Amino acid sequence: MPAELICFDERCRAPFPITDVIYNCPRCGGLLEVSYPPPPSPPAELKQIWRARRASNAPLDQSGVWRYREIIPFLDTLEPVVTLREGNTPLLPAPRAAQYAGLDALAFKHQGFNPTGSFKDNGMTCGAAQARRLGMSRVACVSTGNTSASMAAYASAGGLQPLVFIPHGNISYGKLAQALEYGAKTLQVDANFDQILALVRALAESLGIYLLNSINPFRIEGQKTIIVEMLDQRDWNPPDWIVLPGGNLGNTSAFGKALRELHALGFITRMPRLAVIQAEGAAPFYELMRAPAEGFHAVGHPETLATAIKIGDPVSWPKALREVACSGGVVEKVTEQEIADAKAVIGQCGIGCEPASAATLAGIRKLTAAGAINPSADVVAVLTGNLLKDPDYIYRYHTGQLEAPGGAPIRSHFGNQPVVVPNDAARIAEALRDT
Ligand code: F0G
Known about the structure:
It is a single chain. By secondary structure, the protein is of the alpha/beta class. Helices cover 38% and strands 14% of the residues. The chain contains 15 helices and 13 strands. The radius of gyration is 21 Å and the shape is globular. Ligand F0G is lined by residues 118, 120, 143-147, 214, 245-252, 308-309, 354, 356-357, 384-385.
């Protein structure tokens, strides 16, 4: 049985050919996922093959996604693959952040070390490969910034025309700059992320463009390798918790699918628990988990300075719900102040990240204080984007100018003001005396 697309909804599970250009189940409208037969080799053998590939100079072996190709075998041949050597991101111990969060130890899996500076590259290499396999010439995405940066890069590298739709005035300049530089036709729409996504989904078919939002199941396959690589780096010893920020919830879906598959295939014998952290002003998934009986309700006007996760109607919530439940996980929400301070602490570790990523540390601190995470637990937090994605936010925080949506000031508890000095050796020595 070859790879196929399957409706994710348990009541439907309708199968479709892997080459159908569909984003939802044509029968019931449910989300789609990729399904495979088990890999040809047993886990112990694959673990050795994957480790050995790290020493190879072959482009696909050097990719931290395609090195693990036996776990994402949706292509007939690897010829359509476009790689910028994505993945290969470090697992960094962070004692200062652990202490802040009330933990004995904490490690960050830093996806900001990717070629375009975010975890989106892990998924985009797969989405772009599928687009090329299907013979598409134009690809599109709606984005809070990182998806557009990543898609623009992979499309241009692979000879596809990238079309980017972004909420006007609501993404950081770092990310917009990337889309422009990588050659995307960029449309700034006067609407929020959720409204634009609905618009573009309706337009995709009539315009003959291939959608590379995280509703695209091939993107999810690529993002699974974040977990595979992290487990490989830990010699296949699963942590107790994996903590990640939640926006459109594609990553939560990918992590859960990876863990379930690896567990079922025998790569790991224990499932880590997922903790998904949302920003307080954009937390519909948190609300769903808090009161499941009330059902899912989109947030009409999401608000957060962590613009990457400023999403009120996450398309992948049904998948994320299954994955969080399956892993015995939790969902938490954090304030703008908590995100800003956690971000500064991650900076003080010499690591740094963009605002959405820092929701992880803020969430862990809250969950540890509430007793949901044990102080001695083995915790990995996934930092999703690079510090340089949003320098404006950083400057404002450290200079005491950062304001939450609505205008409330954010206090710079870990502020680090730059000091203006004259061109005068004595005065400079004076300014450095207490340092
Ligand atoms: N962190 C960062 C840095 C992101 O860019 C995103 C999503 C998330 C977390 C949330 O991930 O959507 O899988 O739950 N950014 C998307 C974009 C929406 O358009 O770049 P998710």
